Amino acid sequence: MARLLVLTDRPPDDTDWKGALTWRIILALAESHHEVMVVTPVELEKIHVTHPRLLVTRPVSSWRVDQMPRIAKVLLTFQPQI
Hints:
82 residues; 2 helices; three-stranded parallel β-sheet; alpha/beta
């Protein structure tokens, strides 16, 4: 299956509907045998979604431009297909 990279700044228990929907889609992709990496500035303690094919990482503290080298490093290391 495919290696997917997802960028999100919403936790799974976000009060807005977008956070919950985003994480449901992420989990569904992992359950469909895709290898999924989530890059987020959200503290990892707030993310309770787990799956063997899901990797959640927090290489940045925000989406500022000065954080781009860290995101680029993740892209080069993971080499997502999508």
